[in-house]
Amino acid sequence: MERTNSRVLLNGIHFVFLLFFSGMESSLSFMTYDLFGFDSSKNGRLLGFVGLIASILQGGVTRRLPPLTSVRTGVIACLVAFGLLARLQTVSMLYLAATCLAMTSATVVTGLNALSSFEASENERGSKLGMMRSWGQLGRGLGPVLFTSVPPRKLITPATPKIATGLLQTSTISSQYCIFHAKLGECENHLICAGRCRAPLSRKSTQIPQRPPIMSLLTEDQYFSANPAPKLLERHEAQAKSFIDAHAAGGRRVTVRFIDNFSAGTRGATSAEYFLEAGYAVIFLHRQFSLLPYSRHYSHTTDCFLDYLTEAPGGKVVAKQIEQERLLDVLRKYQTAKERNLLLMIPFLTITDYLYELRSIARLMRPLGPSGLLYLAAAVSDFFVPSDRMAEHKIQSTDAADKVKLGSASDTSAPATTPATADTDSSSEPILHPSSTVAAGVPKTITEEEETFDNFDSSPKVPRSKRLVIDLDPVPKFLKNLVDGWAPEGMIVSFKLETDPSILVHKAAYSLDRYQHHLVIGNLLATRKWEVVFVARNRPDRWIRIPDDRRAKSSSGVQKLVGSAQRSACDADPGDQPMDPSCLPEGEPEVEIEGLIIPAVQDMHTDHIRQAAEKKRQG
């Protein structure tokens, strides 16, 4: 066969092909992990699929093709595979790309070897083939180094005027709840324990500080590898995937990822109901035993639920006549949501459970693109105890148990005598006389220090050594991971709760700038049921308030009257400033502010979808 003297061209093609192909191979497992949460076994099945298809094609098809046709077929298949990987959204697309990669693997190198053999005489064939393969191996070695060094593309840049918001929201508290409820808040670098920051910030007078470092993907991997996944995570993932797939296929509704709010879950459960009324399908990720949609109307009231029921003739239990209409309305809405598969409720218990569930569901929602909405109303504490430092047993108030353990460890063969005790209940420690023994004969005496400490009225007498010092770690901030990696195209809505009106809008804007998401809903602890503020990129701040004529109701549902003196002082419209809590009437608002929040969020989500579609059309 006549040679074409294209040795340099063949070597160059072999080098360039293996450079890109090996770079793709080395980063594919990271891509599938990031997009679909593939573990080693799933990636192994994917690579096994590629190898199986490649071996079938190489044995049955490639050897029958002319070498040049084989190379051209493989290059085209490689380009198609790269195009599919660049726009990857589903596992089906991934396996289609894998099939194209298998075609590439089975054809290109084999065809190039055949062409190279035609370009050399019998005496030169070995050296020429060796040279071509050397160029190929150089490309194979450089590919992984080059492509794993390229920084990831930012899917949402700082200049992108889109609508989304928050991940790990800090929770704030009034001073009396600071330690005991473990609801610690963050104000710049200060804890909110007295209802305000030590250095209040004004959005108008103070520039937003430079962004602190955001948690890296390496830290994300470290956190999730150091903390065990919830036992029910796989079941919840399967439920969420089935739920999302069912609604993504129909095209009529979009799915909401949802988390409960800072206290009992009122904001979250109420918002879920209004999302359902707006036509959304809702995944309600909530803390165990917090309020739930629809049942909240009867599970978080001052009246016992049994007070709504009565016994009917024949021993039947029915709702009281006065409650039947309202109960029937709530029941019908709940049953409609469940029958139409519009509501999926997934519980979590710990902060680690929450982060695992959040990451999994956000990734499952990625194929929805901009139609997905993540509404993060959870009040996540800023500090926690990592699992590797979690105590297994109850924290003891004295060292008496240490002496028992020491005695048990030193001499387990000595007989124990029954101690003489004072009158105590089963949960208290016995008071032992100096001559008493416990746990294999170890003497136990009451010291003056222990006696002082055990006194119920011991506040001024407690020794410093007896005080409990709590050492907590900061909860990882994964909002940037959510925005850039877990759900980069979805709209994300977060909340910012404060107690100081002077810093609310500034803190919301700071969060928006730091994490580059789309919307922060700010609210104050004292007025959260009457007003919120929307802080969004490239939009003026917008206050949403309960109308004056719907501000309050009595227990009978009739609006309360506000005193003339108070009304005169509060007639002025607060405008772009928070309301004065003293101007609010007693009792609950006549309407729920979530009924105003959700339509406004829906409008922004519609705009978010429209902007994404326009951007896609423009290329």
UniProtKB/TrEMBL annotation:
Superkingdom field: Eukaryota
An annotated GO cellular component: membrane
Major localization listed first in the record, in broad terms: membrane
Topology in the lipid bilayer: Multi-pass membrane protein
Localisation: Membrane
UniProtKB keywords: Membrane, Transmembrane, Transmembrane helix
KW Membrane (keyword) present: yes
Bias kind Low complexity: ranges: 408-428
Disordered: annotated segments: 401-440, 555-588
Transmembrane regions: 12-33, 45-62, 69-88
InterPro entries referenced in this protein's UniProt entry, alphabetically: CoaB-like_sf, MFS, MFS_trans_sf
GO MF terms held by the record: transmembrane transporter activity
PANTHER family: CORNICHON-RELATED (PTHR12290)
Name this polypeptide is given: DNA/pantothenate metabolism flavoprotein C-terminal domain-containing protein
Gene source species: Parascedosporium putredinis
